[in-house]
Amino acid sequence: MKQTPIDTINNLQEIIIVNCYVYYELDDNVLSDVQFDHVCNKLIGWMNHKDFKKSKHYELFKDFSMATRFNISETKNKKWLNIAQQVVDNQKYIDV
Q1: How far apart are alpha carbons 8 and 95 in whole angstroms?
Q2: How far apart (Å, rounded) are the C-alpha atoms in residues 87 and 62?
Q3: DSSP characters for the chain?
Q4: What are the sequence ranges of the domains in the chain?
Q5: Among the listed residues 75, 69, 72, 95, the one whose alpha carbon sits nearest the alpha carbon of residue 83
Q6: Considering only CA atoms, which of 43, 39, 3 is closest in space to residue 22?
Q7: Cα distance between residue 77 and residue 74, in whole Å
Q8: How far apart are CA 96 and CA 32, in angstroms?
């Protein structure tokens, strides 16, 4: 089934959030820098889409850029930390 634009935007945002938790909170890595930059650039490409403001995490990503990146301190919660730990344990990205 093909993803809708809003599904794609939400998925990219959640990949970034989880990867930041893996990297900054768990001191691990599941995406290379090149892969992470690719995900970030894909999200940036969607930022002008009409549905971007409807995304689940719009407030966290409304000013996102390669220069600003993602501020993990704005999302500190156990849900994301638990998902990040599952990703590390499984060494694969899981649907959030």
Answers
A1: 12
A2: 26
A3: -PPPHHHHHHHHHHHHHHHHIIIIIS---SS-HHHHHHHHHHHHHHTTSTTGGGSTTHHHHTT--TTT---GGGS--HHHHHHHHHHHHHTS----
A4: 5-89
A5: 95
A6: 39
A7: 9
A8: 20
Query: What does the pLDDT read at residue 95?
Result: 54
**Hey, what are 74's tokens?**
């704005």
pLDDT tens digits, 5-29: 999 999 999 999 999 899 988 999 9
The number of residues in the chain equals 96
CA distance 78 to 60: 17
Is pTM beyond 0.85 here?
Answer: yes
Provide the pLDDT confidence category of residue 66 given band limits of 50, 70 and 90.
confident
68 CA to centre of own chain = 14
- Cβ count near 69 (within 10 Å): 12
